[in-house]
Amino acid sequence: MGLELVHVVDDDPAMRDSLAFLLETAGFAVRLYESGTALLERLATLVSGCVLTDIRMPGLDGLDLIRHLRETGNTLPVVVMTGHGDVPLAVEAMKRGACDFIEKPFDDEVLLRALRHALSPGSAATAADPTVQDFLQRIETLSERERQVFDRLVTGATSKEIGRALDISPRTVEIYRAKLMAKTQAASLQDLVRRAVLAGLA
Questions:
Q1: Ranges for the Response regulatory domain (predicted)?
Q2: Cα–Cα distances in Å, from 81 out to 45, 95, 152?
């Protein structure tokens, strides 16, 4: 059996080299592309593996790349790398068909875990995923205020913005956030957003 293949798309040469070293060391086969366009030019060869793409790139960005892949019928799983605080873009990417996102700067193990999950058989079959049903049940346990904070968190709003919208202090928002994270058992904001998108709540 061959190595799992990761198609890395990033306009930063240093980032491409760094990712290639990390992934090859972890046992993946790697192909590098300096742009979304470069990857699309090789579309016919994209028959296995998964795509790891930056979301903010000149020309064809990560969102456009996902759209082009899906429009041409390519179903390779896509993991998106976003800048810190790019939650709205990450939500949009997942709605367009990305299976996961990770925020830069990220821990190596977080990236490797996301890629292994993306490459695991059946990772796209989320509708009947018991973890999605479990998450939906946990959402039902949120208080009205916790749900208001949740709804704004998963659109990328900051604690200050949520506080202004709900007329409460950012500190109070943080308290509600901690409570809802505990109730939903989300490990991080990234995890919360991912689950919310898969459950159709973002």
A1: 5-119
A2: 23, 15, 22
CATH 1.10.10.10 domain range(s) in the chain: 130-198
Residues in the chain: 202
Any idea which fold 5-119 has? Answer: Rossmann fold (3.40.50)
Q: Which fold does the domain 130-198 belong to in CATH?
A: Arc Repressor Mutant, subunit A (1.10.10)
Place of tokens 């790697």: 30
In 10 A of CB 43, how many CB atoms?
13
From first to last of its 202 residues, the chain has per-residue pLDDT tens of: 467 999 999 999 999 999 999 999 999 999 999 999 999 999 888 888 999 999 999 989 999 999 999 998 888 999 999 886 688 888 888 888 888 888 888 889 989 988 998 888 765 544 446 678 889 999 999 999 999 999 999 888 889 999 999 999 999 999 999 999 999 998 888 788 888 988 888 7
With tokens 């790019």, the residue in question is: 86
Return the closest-CA partner of residue 194 out of 74, 83, 103: 103
Q: What are residue 24's phi and psi, to 5 degrees?
A: -65, -40
